[in-house]
Amino acid sequence: MENALALVVGSVAGGFARWIFSGRVGRLMGGGFPWGTFVVNLSACFLIGLFDSLAEVRFALTPAARILLMTGFCGAYSTFSTFIMETAKLIQSGQPVWALANFFGSGLAGIALFWFGAALGRI
């Protein structure tokens, strides 16, 4: 039950933080480029790296804290951070080909599937 509560609290906080932070950055920087999303995604990469080190190297996070911060907060704040962490872990584990496949494959397949879904929605 503790893990489920940690997930819910982290997810609500991450979703709310994304909404607030992305909107403020977007208004501050203006249009023409999705600055809010860009800054949120990069800040989430920093945060998940920090949390991962605290959990894996310093052992400073309990399993519930890890779920709250990494799965809940970062997951709702930006799934891009998890994607980057998983790609980095592939590199760290000596699997650079899989890391490149994940990095470029996710981007290319994501764009293709976005276009496919948009086309399907227009039918």
Q: Number of DSSP strands? A: 0
Question: Which value, in Å, is the CA radius of gyration?
Answer: 16 Å
Distance between the termini: 44 Å
Strand content: under 5%
- What is the H/E string? HHHHH
Low-confidence stretches: none
Q: Looking at the chains present, what oligomeric state does this protein adopt?
A: single chain
Estimate the global geometry from the Cα principal axes: globular
Which whole number gives the mean pLDDT? 92
Helix content: over 70%
Q: What about the largest sheet? A: none
Number of helices: 5
Structural class: mainly alpha
Question: Would you spell out the secondary-structure blueprint of this structure?
Answer:
Blueprint: H1 2-29, H2 35-56, H3 63-77, H4 79-92, H5 96-122
Helix pairs in contact: 1-2, 1-3, 2-3, 2-4, 3-4, 4-5
Give a short synopsis of this structure.
With 123 residues, the protein is mainly α. It has five helices and no strands.
Task: Please provide a written account of the structure.
The chain has helices at 2-29, 35-56, 63-77, 79-92, 96-122. It has a domain at 2-78. The protein is mainly α and 123 residues long.
